[in-house]
Amino acid sequence: MKTVAILAAALLVTACGNPAPTPKTTANDSLAALALAEPKSATGEGSITAIDADTGKITLAHGPVAELSWPAMTMGFAAKSGQTGGLKVGDKVRFAFRWDGRTAEIESIDKI
Q1: Which of 16, 37, 42, 93 could cross-link to 67 by cystine, CB 3.0-4.6 Å?
Q2: How does DSSP classify residue 70?
Q3: Which helix (H) or strand (E) holds 29?
């Protein structure tokens, strides 16, 4: 009986000394969590570096976006049919967009 008590105490001490492993969070997990948040509207200014009418994507080199605490960067935005009409690579633009944590979608875009 004494041996069983000693063995049980040793197992209890060992179990208490080793906390359960914590699941690792990846960048994709963080992005998925962002995607579940309510989409945010923001505005920016920049210049067009590419337009792909087939995919509806416009790439902008834009300045900081205060509403989202973003630094200046170059990134692609989804655009609806007709939003890029009259625009060309090199144009300076002011734009409004919605960000859902994964995709930025142009709401309006105008030359400046």
Answers
A1: 42
A2: B
A3: helix 27-36
